[in-house]
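Problem 12. The chain below contains 80 residues. Write out its predicted structure in token notation.
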Amino acid sequence: YYWLGEIYMLENNLNDAGKAFAVVKDRFPAHRKANDAKFKLAKVYHLQGDVGKSKTLLTEVAATDSGAASLARAYLSDNF
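Solution.
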């Protein structure tokens, strides 16, 4: 689902990208790509104008020790 979300992002299909990333976040929270999916979902929310959901997810990911944490902190810094 993560990689499907990436493909949808490349196609600028934000609705389907968000759905795919949400599947990873909701159904596979312990997977190694879960924080990456949350970060990407936060970007989708931001691009769709849902700033609140975006910031919440970015803050959650930024507080982890995952590889996506530094990306989330940078995105927060640049956009909020």
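Discussion. The chain is about 80% helix and 0% strand. Students who got a different answer should revisit the alignment rule from Section 12.3.
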